[in-house]
Specification:
This protein has 186 residues and is an alpha+beta fold. The protein contains seven helices and eight strands. Strand 3 and strand 4 form a beta hairpin. The C terminus is likely disordered. Bound molecules: coenzyme A.
């Protein structure tokens, strides 16, 4: 039984958000194998790596240079993943996020990235970078909620953004205030 507080989403469903570790490999493989193929392509910007390769990467994540956050439904199904990784102790880290298709548009992506940004800042990360298909409207809207875009643009159909995690701390705190505490269950 998880000791993490549950978070209630806009539609009343609950998730538990916590960092993933090597023991979560099975849940990750199951999630990838059942994910919507087009969502996976948008997440990896092409053919995704085999699920077992992702599980091996998860086992190597040290929670400091690379950190993987997961959201679980009450049945223990992994329904969202947000992660960052960086070189050495760099202040800039690349982020990636995916929410299961049947859990999208309920602010789960916002909750995951807000929590990821908080954990990143606590580890000395001050900027996220992200790249995505240029027509990926959901991620562009989602990134605006995490921090201030110091630069963003399009290059041959690929969108990119650099998100300053320090500039809009007040906004991020607002998200935490309006989403997480109000929705946390006892
Ligand atoms: C991007 C993604 C993680 C968003 O997750 P989500 O849980 O649906 O996000 P939220 O519900 O928190 O919504 C965040 C914002 O995106 C908007 N949004 C979400 N889905 C949308 C859609 N299909 N069309 C338009 N806007 C959308 C929301 O309206 C919200 O913006 P708003 O508050 O200004 O209205 C999800 O669409 C996804 O997993 N996509 C596939 C993987 C991917 O593209 N990853 C990005 C590359 S790393």
């Amino acid at each position: 039984m998880s000791t993490q507080p549950a978070v209630r989403l806009a539609d009343g469903r609950c998730v538990t958000v916590r960092p993933l570790c090597a023991d979560d490999a099975g849940a990750l493989i199951d999630a990838v194998e059942h994910e919507d193929p087009w969502d996976l392509r948008r997440r990896f910007m092409g053919t995704p790596p085999p699920a077992r390769t992702l599980a091996r990467q998860l086992a190597r994540a040290d929670g400091f240079h690379d950190l993987v956050l997961g959201a679980f439904d009450p049945d223990g199904r992994l329904v969202g993943v947000a992660q960052f990784d960086r070189l050495d102790d760099a202040a800039t880290a690349e982020l990636a996020v995916e929410v299961s298709h049947d859990w999208q548009r309920r602010r789960l992506g916002t909750i995951l990235l807000s929590e990821l940004a908080e954990l990143a800042r606590a580890r000395g990360v001050h900027e996220f970078t992200a790249s995505y298909y240029g027509d990926n409207v959901p991620i562009r809207r989602l990134l605006r909620k995490v921090g201030h875009a110091s630069s963003s643009g399009l290059d041959h159909g690929t969108g990119y953004a650099r998100i300053n995690l320090d500039a809009d701390v007040a906004d991020v705190a607002d998200i935490a205030a309006t989403v997480t505490p109000l929705c946390r269950l006892p």
